Amino acid sequence: MENKTIFISAGDVSGDIHAANLVQALKELAPSLRVIAIGGPRLKACADEFITDLASQGIVGFVEPLRKLPMFFNLVKQVRHIFQTQKPAAFVAVDYYGLNHQFLKVAKEENIPAYYYVTPQVWASRQYRAKRLAALTKKMYVIYPFEPDFHKQRGGNAVFLGNPLLDKMPAPLPKNFDIKDPKTYAWKLGILPGSRRGEITRLTPVFYQTFKEICKTYPNTQAYMFLLPDANEQTFIDLMGEQPPANFHFVKETDYKMRAQMDFLLACSGTATLENALLGVPMLVAYKLFTPTYLIARMVIQVKYISLVNLLVNKPLVKELIQGDASVKNCTAVTQDMFAHPQKLTDMHKELLTLRASLGDPGVAKRAAADILRDL
User: Fold this and answer.
1) Cα–Cα distance, 160 to 8 (Å, whole number)
2) How far apart are the first and last CA of the chain?
3) What does the domain layout of the chain look like in residue ranges?
4) Which residue among 54, 159, 200, 285 is least enclosed by CB atoms within 10 Å?
5) What is the pTM of this model?
6) Is the pLDDT of residue 179 over 70?
7) CATH code for 5-163+360-375?
């Protein structure tokens, strides 16, 4: 590998984490490697040249990105200039189809080999995108065992090396739901309102009010709201409309140790649901989108379930509450039912652990880094 520069791009929080892990693995194997990056704070910390923090902006959906079009055009222009002047040995896109798709087209035009690490879930909606990715990438590193066949049928070179979440997730804790009196038990209720502004705004009030309702029947419940390390707690307090009581706690962690201890989780949709599954923690999944975005999404989504967990086991293992159904009343009813019948928690815990076993072994970033470097 004569040219020792790689350009990597991630567009959201989870992609930033996966991209940073990949960069660290690449640099361990090739210490003289130079990395140019677009992403978030984790990529910024390990890149040699950082262009912009795209990941922290949380741009998703169909309507919201329109407001950012001038920024997008400037970024594509900037990336083209870097490709032309620095001629990196490879471009690596991580998750986030939107801008990464534009960068891939530029890489193709500039004859720079392109790889996709954590390929977008094009099998879930807009499957025509799979053919585009096949035409623009040399290789895709997919994260679910069924994906290589899906992409192969559409001309893509996709390999499954395991799910990269396994690189950062601890082993699940044993769970004992043999509870004699559920009403007096000190339940640990986890709350995951998300990482993007929109979902945080829509889900935080619902989850907080659910916690307050739960406490009426299960007064010893302790709630733990999990926030990103750089999140401002006051933002969430404002959304809750009051200073929370003493049995409500904010948690900022990167090692998942506290989340692994939860009995049940109120979770946003997305990567968080798979993290919960890998920890073996039972949950419900709430999904509330900006209304125009939801109406468009309903037309293009081609899968039966919203949550990754249900998609992977191909059945409604966890309760999904979508849009108007993601209400305080419904979240409370599902949670109270689980607390009243602890055997349901035991059963879900066991099924989630079976799902974990199907997603491969840790060391995914290292295997992908070695494969990219071999290719180059």
Assistant:
1) 20
2) 6
3) 5-163+360-375, 188-357
4) 159
5) 0.79
6) yes
7) 3.40.50.2000
